[in-house]
Please model this.
Amino acid sequence: MRRCLPIIALLFLVAAACAPQGSPATAEGVRYFSVSFAPGTDTGTPSAPLPETTEYAFAVTVEARDLWGDRVTGFSGEVEVSLLGATLRSYRRISLMNGTSDPVTVRFGDGYRVERIAVTAIATEKTIVDAREIRLPTGPVGVSDPIYLISPRIPAVQGSLASVDDGGPSRLEKRNLTIRGPYDTAAGRHRDLVVIAAIEGGFYLSETDCEEFCSIYLYTHSTPYVEDGDDRAVVAPGMLLAEVNGSVFEYFGFTELSFPTFTPRRDGDGRILRDPAAIPAPRDVTACVDAADDLCLEGHEAMLVTVTGIAVDDFDEQDEAWSLYSQFPLRTSAGGVVMAQTVYTAPSFDPVAMKGVPIVSLTGLLKQHTSSRPSTWILVPRDGQDIVTGGM
Model:
């Protein structure tokens, strides 16, 4: 028998089919902020980043938006400005009236690769946290379009803003960075970086044309290997790298790039390009040592340097510097002192037997260690050939 729906049920189904399937949400209150640049602002592109400068400045307008993207004219308050990694150098807060701000210039320094200007709404009332009065964030946020900047160079990482009394820590300490060489407009790419030494569970890397703060130590925690075509090779002096990435840390005043990754420059067959001639010549820092000029030595940290006209100074063999770390003092003819460590890289050199014996020169990597005494500066030769005695 054919069954028919009751008339009431049929009317119910028809009504349900014709009824709207849920009501649209009501756009009440601020859901987010738009952060807009002034018309015509150049924010760079990935292939054409903005040139390096000590400070960047961008005029922005901040507007409160509802769920549909319309301006919330009923909002008046303040937002707090932040950046991905750069150092903010302008006022941290922006005031909005009737849902919008006047154009405000945001200034920042130490910006690299990609930056964004972010804002967060903050409460009008102050809250006590750890005996400090602060304005807590209230939820809505906003982020600008990306600003494309150049990659940092080694001098930007090695250069410091702090006193050398505490090791002159990098102003980019604790940031994860990708480092490249300077941009060569003629070649249309960044210049290569060159490995200058591979010792002590890592390797030293340098720019090829640079005045100061030119080198940095990459702490790989073990012997660094790299794929070289179909082979596996140890990272060695003269290897050319296109870029390196890692986190900047200070180890007792010595700037390091920790847990690094790196991209070698390769030929068409995947072989790593090598150019030993690209390794910068050692800098003579004898005058810096004679003058106990820490600023001069700081500018040569991790670089290949030479000290001339020296001798192993008398030292107490029971002292911890020698007994624990095999470090010993070198004294110049003018009375300057720098520490040295040869046990691992030039083991045939016997500092105890060489006390007082004239040494023509000692070349090596310049390290800083703020817990070392009598000097914070330590010279580490690459091998025995870096030590030139009177009999050679």
Notes: The chain has three domains: 32-148, 154-278, 283-389. Residues 1-27 have pLDDT under 50 and may be disordered.
